[in-house]
Specification:
- The structure is a single chain.
- By secondary structure, the protein is of the alpha/beta class.
- The protein has a single domain (about 10-240), classed as NAD(P)-binding Rossmann-like Domain (Rossmann fold).
- It has eight helices and seven strands, in the order βαβαβαβαβααβααβ.
- The chain has a seven-stranded parallel beta sheet, sandwiched between helices.
- Helix 1 packs parallel to helix 2 (about 45-55), helix 1 (about 20-30) crosses helix 8 (about 215-225) and helix 4 (about 105-135) runs parallel beside helix 6 (about 155-175).
- The protein is globular, with a radius of gyration of 17 Å.
- The chain binds NADP nicotinamide-adenine-dinucleotide phosphate (NAP).
Length: about 240
């Protein structure tokens, strides 16, 4: 499929100030898209993403919003429509990984994790779907995690939030299958970002390939899900063969 297909389309990438989100936002910019660069607190980093998108040939603006907050999400989507028109592509990427021993997890750790990692995807999807259904074209990609299948290193709260994304993906994909809107997930593991190297303090790439994955390798999977109109309700693991860790 040629790049023209998504050229000029309006996109929202959540958590696009850094890491995988930034990579997705810049790749969409490179296809000539108009991208809302969402961030939580790092405005300078979001500004850098905006700059890279414009250098790549796209248009962008940055917008602070806590994606776990329904009012913030409404504002994010309304502002995006006002600047760039109806939303065609949504990448639900923002996420947190609260790391502590599993028997010390609190109710507020659980609530924060579910709200940021899972409820956000529902809030965003609900808010953009009227645009996509009206256009009979839309792409939603949920960035989940290998941990949904294996338990992972962060803990059960994180694994549960990411497994929930797969149910959300299947539910929306099935409901929208006749409407030109595809909904898929990309489930990475051990990608070289702040989450891996700083939050989780992982210094050894414990994957069968004995290396970390790159942001580019993850973005490549996300972009495939956006380009391909016949793939829906799927989860693609980008994990260096890491299924059993
Ligand atoms: P990262 O480097 O830690 O970046 C996280 C991004 O999410 C930042 O842009 C951050 O904004 C944003 N964010 C966090 N909470 C937010 C909120 N409440 N509202 C809006 N934005 C928020 O993470 P990453 O490694 O790129 O991970 C991206 C996604 O991939 C996450 O969902 C993560 O769970 C998933 N994932 C990553 C890996 C991996 O190996 N890295 C593996 C599996 C899954 P600020 O910069 O403003 O803080």
């Amino acid at each position: 499929m040629s790049p023209e297909t998504i050229q000029g389309k309006t996109c929202i990438v959540t958590g696009a100030s850094r890491g995988i989100g930034r990579g997705c936002a810049v790749a969409l910019g490179g296809e000539g898209c108009r991208v809302a660069v969402n961030y939580r607190e790092r405005a300078d980093e979001a500004e850098e993403t905006r700059r890279e998108i414009e250098e790549a040939g796209g248009e962008a603006f940055i917008i602070q919003a806590d994606v776990s907050d329904a009012q913030d999400v409404r504002r994010l989507v309304e502002e995006t429509r006002k600047r760039f028109g109806p939303v065609s592509i949504l990448v639900n990427n923002a996420g947190i990984a609260i790391q502590k021993p599993f028997d010390e997890l609190t109710e507020s750790d659980w609530d924060a994790t579910i709200d940021v990692n899972l409820k956000s995807a529902f809030l965003l999807t609900r808010a953009v779907l009227p645009d996509m259904r009206e256009a009979r074209w839309g792409r939603i990609v949920n960035v989940s995690s290998n941990a949904a299948f294996t338990g992972g290193r962060v803990g059960p709260h994180y694994a549960a939030s990411k497994a929930g994304m797969h149910g959300l993906t299947h539910g929306y994909a099935a409901a929208l299958v006749k409407e030109g809107v595809t909904v898929n997930s990309v489930a990475p593991a051990l990608i070289d970002t702040d989450m891996t190297t700083q939050d989780l303090r992982t210094s050894t790439p414990n994957t069968p390939m004995e290396r970390f994955g790159t942001v580019e390798e993850t973005v490549d999977a996300v972009m495939m899900m956006i380009r391909n109109a016949f793939v829906t309700g799927q989860t693609l693991l980008v994990n260096g063969g890491n299924y059993f860790h």
